[in-house]
Amino acid sequence: MLGEPGAPQCGRYDVDRGDRADVTQRGTPPRRPTPSGEGVHRDEDAVSAVGADSQQPAAGDWRVAALAGIRTLITEAVPEVVEEVKWRRPSNPAGVLAWSHDGLLCTGETYKDHVKVTFAKGARLEDPGGLFNASLDGALRRAVDLREGDSLDPVAFVELVRAAVSLNESARRRR
Prior knowledge:
Elements: E1 13-14, E2 19-20, H1 23-26, H2 62-77, E3 82-86, E4 96-100, E5 104-110, E6 114-119, E7 142-147, H3 154-174
Antiparallel strand pairs: 1-2, 3-4, 4-5, 5-6, 6-7
């Protein structure tokens, strides 16, 4: 498993070194994984990526566990998803966890009291499971905010992720 001692690190962030890896020395991570899921571009430090909170949550924190569960559901829905950390800056050195497939699908961030999953084109997605509970007034994005103790309907979430993939694929076909 990635992240374990001796396991290959294929993300852009070298967990062992604690800094950005030199891609020329390590090879370019694949943008498209194999059908078996091997070579999926993942940043193993991404699960603890934080949003507005200035301190990263500890490994046993409920927010890290929630984000790990969301990651599992997303990779279940789309095994060939590309996962990476984007938008690193001094105010948010951990960056924002982002999942893509033919374009940005969604981002995952931890905050002091909740975990936010924002769907890039959420306003254009059907939400029969009623998961969207944040950013409802926006013209483009929709979000799911999870607070400690909240549950997420895994079937509805997987359907939502697959709908986001379909939307991205249909936009690509029109180009």
